């Protein structure tokens, strides 16, 4: 019996590795371990010893926070509960960004909506200061009812966006196609809640209803597993020492590709790779996308 249990556990462990899962659960730490408020400190509230925080937005200001360190590659995740009710015009963000004009950036932006209308999750990738790589999806759950995990896996081979461990987007390293890839600019992690009613909801047609404010988004499980570096560093050589730098994380596996295809078929509402009106010529990196 003990041998059977051991064999079952081994099979499950091997399945986890084959599916590209992290070898261990992300370790959440209190907010103050890795993060500091960025502006409007009075619009941030702390709960449970700093393991949970709330950001608030009113008609005076929004607020945000950033990591203390800068990172080259890693796995970064956070659990977020979005602004409930009428959130039109608001944007709740979780992203990585470098600090210069030709910056690199990896974005989650959650676009609010009128009561009863679904949130839109917009992702984007900037390399060398060039963005315009937006993709938008509806989520398969109500992100205002409970916390959900949003994470980024970033190594030399790919950037993967996850929602509750489901891959929703992959940006492969396409340097061989002439596309820049983030590899030598350390990035800080940022989160913010702000007013963007000039564009966020129906292209700016729906304005923020300040009578419904203040608007509140909640964050917890502040997880960082990256290669910490100074902002002046040109590279960070992990040499395969970190789990996210191993061979099995250089690509999605078959199961993850199926999950990504499910998201694209069922929930994608915009993909720059298929927008021929805006981009008559397909971006080179899109040719590496299996489903385009």
In N-to-C order, the SSE pattern is: HHEEEEEEEEEEEEEEHE
Strand order of the largest sheet: 1-4-13-6-7-8-9-15
Helix content: 10-25%
- What is the averaged pLDDT score? 89
Number of domains: 1
Low-confidence stretches: 1-20
For the report, how would you describe the main beta sheet?
Answer: 8 strands, antiparallel
CATH architecture: Sandwich
SS content category: mainly beta
How many strands appear in the DSSP assignment? 15
What is the molecular shape? globular
CATH topology: Jelly Rolls
Look at the structure and give the CATH class.
Mainly Beta
Q: What is the strand content?
A: 35-45%
**Quaternary organisation:** single chain
**What is the count of helical runs?**
3
Rounded radius of gyration (Å): 19 Å
Family: Belongs to the glycosyl hydrolase 16 family.
Signal peptide: 1-20
Function: Catalyzes xyloglucan endohydrolysis (XEH) and/or endotransglycosylation (XET). Cleaves and religates xyloglucan polymers, an essential constituent of the primary cell wall, and thereby participates in cell wall construction of growing tissues.
GO molecular function: hydrolase activity, hydrolyzing O-glycosyl compounds; xyloglucan:xyloglucosyl transferase activity
What does this structure look like?
This protein is mainly β and 292 residues long. The chain is built from three helices and 15 strands. An eight-stranded antiparallel beta sheet has the order 1-4-13-6-7-8-9-15. A seven-stranded antiparallel beta sheet has the order 2-3-14-5-10-11-12. Strand 7 (105-111) and strand 8 (120-126) form a beta hairpin. It starts with a helix and ends in a 21-residue tail after the last strand.
């Amino acid at each position: 019996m003990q041998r059977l249990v051991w064999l079952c556990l081994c099979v499950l462990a091997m399945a986890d590795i084959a599916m590209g899962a992290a070898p261990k659960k992300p370790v959440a730490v209190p907010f103050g371990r890795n993060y500091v408020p960025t502006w409007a400190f009075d619009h941030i509230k702390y709960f449970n010893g700093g393991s949970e925080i709330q950001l608030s937005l009113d008609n005076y200001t929004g607020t945000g926070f950033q990591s203390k360190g800068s990172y080259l590659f890693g796995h970064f995740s956070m659990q977020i509960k979005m602004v409930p009710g009428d959130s039109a015009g608001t944007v709740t963000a979780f992203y990585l960004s470098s600090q210069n004009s030709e910056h690199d950036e990896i974005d989650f932006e959650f676009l609010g909506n009128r009561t009863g209308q679904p949130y839109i999750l917009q992702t984007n990738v900037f390399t060398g200061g060039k963005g315009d790589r937006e993709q938008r999806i509806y989520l398969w759950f109500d992100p205002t009812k409970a916390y959900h995990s949003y994470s980024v896996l970033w190594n030399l081979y790919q950037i993967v966006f996850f929602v509750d461990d489901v891959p929703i987007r992959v940006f492969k390293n396409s340097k061989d196609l002439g596309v820049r890839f983030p590899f030598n600019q350390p990035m800080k992690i940022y989160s913010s809640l702000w007013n963007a009613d000039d564009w966020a909801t129906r292209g700016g047609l729906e304005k923020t209803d300040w009578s419904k404010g203040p608007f509140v988004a909640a964050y917890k499980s502040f997880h960082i597993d990256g290669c910490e570096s100074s902002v002046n560093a040109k590279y960070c050589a992990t040499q395969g020492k970190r789990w996210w730098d191993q061979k099995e994380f250089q690509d999605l596996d078959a199961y993850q590709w199926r999950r990504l295809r499910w998201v694209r078929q069922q929930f994608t509402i915009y993909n720059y790779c298929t927008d021929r009106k805006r981009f008559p010529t397909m971006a080179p990196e899109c040719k590496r996308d299996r489903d385009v």
